[in-house]
Amino acid sequence: MRGYTSDKDGYLTRLRRIEGQIRGPQRMVENDEYCIDVLTQIAAATKALQSVSLGLMDEHLKHCVAEAIAVGGDTADAKVREASEAIARLVRS
């Protein structure tokens, strides 16, 4: 079971909504709409993805990392390193 499993439906709903948000700028470009309006829609989709990412990271830390730390040893070190690398990827994007 994954940390986000209890709210899987919520995550799927949010991701489907983001999928629709991503199609919006494509239609806007096809319709030659104003650049700033397209950029505004892209910014909104980006923020929505960041929000989902932060939620998933929170779930990962609370569930997977906390569980690994309780076990200790190399497993804990690996999970903490994995979480740190994921955070670094999120910060760079």
Automatic annotation (TrEMBL):
It is found in: Cytoplasm. One of its GO terms (cellular component) is cytoplasm. Keywords: Copper, Cytoplasm, DNA-binding, Metal-binding, Repressor, Transcription, Transcription regulation. It comes from the Bacteria. Pfam families: Trns_repr_metal (PF02583). GO terms for molecular function: DNA-binding transcription repressor activity; metal ion binding; transcription cis-regulatory region binding. Belongs to the CsoR family. PANTHER family: COPPER-SENSING TRANSCRIPTIONAL REPRESSOR RICR (PTHR33677:SF3), TRANSCRIPTIONAL REPRESSOR FRMR-RELATED (PTHR33677). This is Transcriptional regulator. It comes from Amycolatopsis methanolica 239.
